[in-house]
């Protein structure tokens, strides 16, 4: 697992524990991603 993947996993685990949400919505997942510092800075590309 990469460092970024581990950071995301830890952030999601913390979010789920704090909010008592075993299955967060996609909106909540996006909120966590933004909270750990990710921003859209490049043009979209195809998903592989």
How many runs of DSSP E, i.e. beta strands?
A: 0
Shape: globular
Q: How is the biggest beta sheet arranged?
A: none
Number of helices: 2
N- to C-terminal separation? Answer: 18 Å
Order of helices and strands: HH
> Low-confidence parts, pLDDT < 50 over ≥5 residues?
none
Helix content: 55-70%
Q: Helix/strand/pairing class, anyone?
A: mainly alpha
Mean pLDDT: 96
C-alpha-based Rg, rounded: 12 Å
Proportion of strand residues: under 5%
Give the arrangement of secondary structure elements:
Elements: H1 3-19, H2 26-35
What can you tell me about this protein's structure?
By secondary structure, the protein is an all-alpha fold. The protein has a domain at 3-35. Helix content is 56%, strand content 0%. The two termini are 18 Å apart.
């Amino acid at each position: 697992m990469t460092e970024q993947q581990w950071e995301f996993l830890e952030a999601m685990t913390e979010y789920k524990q704090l909010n008592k949400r075993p299955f967060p919505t996609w909106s909540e997942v996006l909120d966590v991603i933004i909270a750990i510092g990710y921003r859209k800075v490049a043009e979209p590309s195809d998903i592989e």
